[in-house]
Amino acid sequence: MDKWLSHPTALKIISLVLALLLWAVVHIDPDSSPQTVTSSIDTKTIEAAKINVEGLDTEKFALTAMEPTVVRIDVQGKLSDLLTASSIDDYKVIVDVSDAKPGIQELPLVVKLPKGIQLVSMSPRTVTVQMEEIVTKTFDLQVVAEGKAAEGFVAGEPTAVTFSTETGEAGVQVTLPKDDMERVGSVVASVNIEGADKTVTEKKAKIVVYDADGLEMTNAIVDPTNIMVEVKITLPFKKVPVQLRYTGTLPDGVSIESIKPGIEEVTVYGDQKTIDGITVYDGVVVDLSKVKSSGTFNVKTQLIDGIKSVDPEEISISVFVDPTETRTFSGMTINIEELAEGLKAVVRAPESGKYDLTVSGAGSVLSKLEASQITIAANVAGLGPGVHTIPLDIALPAYVQTSVGDGKSLSVTIEIVDEGAAGAGTEEEPPSVETGTTPTDTPAATPDPGSGNGNASGNATNSGNQ
């Protein structure tokens, strides 16, 4: 035995065996089976793992601040597992705010790691959050137009097509944290009309919330988020009063008690020069020959005096008629107009120097008529000394006309004498003759239905638009 142990070859074999045993002691995992060799373990550091928020009731609260928003974590695991979970999104850092209250508070962080990987350390382990109560308030919506319409056109006020929130309320519901709600300045929907030459209809506009300084509040939640907007693009326009005009004649035995348009003003459109020159609109023509009884009917508005369009295109006219009656006003003063200086006018016929005027119209109108509402004038402009027959110019209220009987004339005989001539004024003259006076101006010369002035031609000059 001693001889074998002292042999060089035996010593080499023993040395090899001892070396193998020593290697095994170092590398064999005592927790594994004798045949299992330990796998390689490694560590990894994520410098900026994002903190995710869970449990937030967005209908009641808003997370308005969180510090920090990322954390540093150190993990370890098998190299194969670490290589598999290579993305930063595989490492979840979570803060649960389901039990948080309004205000500033510190909450713990929880880490969710991929399978086979363990947390070594995390910094920090808590996060500070600020919670605010969410409130909802309804605001009136402002609709504004941006840009300018095409040259020669004007833009009307933009309007929102009828809308309501999901709750059925009018206006716009704005949801914000309580503190932010106090900073709301306006809720606006804007529509661009640059270069538009026709009405902009059903154009979608986004609703934006601005603070008192005009800055957009991007965290605001609005209901609805969009609306449809309309902007009228038209020619220049103006609202003017309606003045009725008449054509035709009423049937015999019928007189107007009143005629009234359904609206007092219309909107006329045209170029700016035309619009500037219009003060009334008399494009509504009533055909009296079609009026048989009291009632309401529609009349189209006509394009006149360069007007391009009228709104509305027709208006309703209410007409009330009564049987015709007559009434006589005796001893009416005749006003002599436009008598030249140095001349004197004497009424020769009628001999009294006064005029008995018979008028006709609806009984309800005549019953209220006063003599002071009637003016009788004879214009002698340009006439010299001598005897002249002058047609009378009779101004009557609306819906009243002169009634001339057999042998009656709507004229007077006037003698004009030169006051400087010898013997002038020696002849007896009718009393109470007014000369050189001018009656108060009457309304515009639009024929009044059934109203006459009593001049030689029998034309009426009263407006009748009452």
Automatic annotation (TrEMBL):
Signal peptide stretch: none
Comp. bias regions, Low complexity: 435-466
Region (Disordered): 420-466
Superkingdom per UniProt: Bacteria
One Pfam family matching this protein: YbbR
Descriptive protein name: YbbR domain-containing protein
Originating species: Paenibacillus harenae
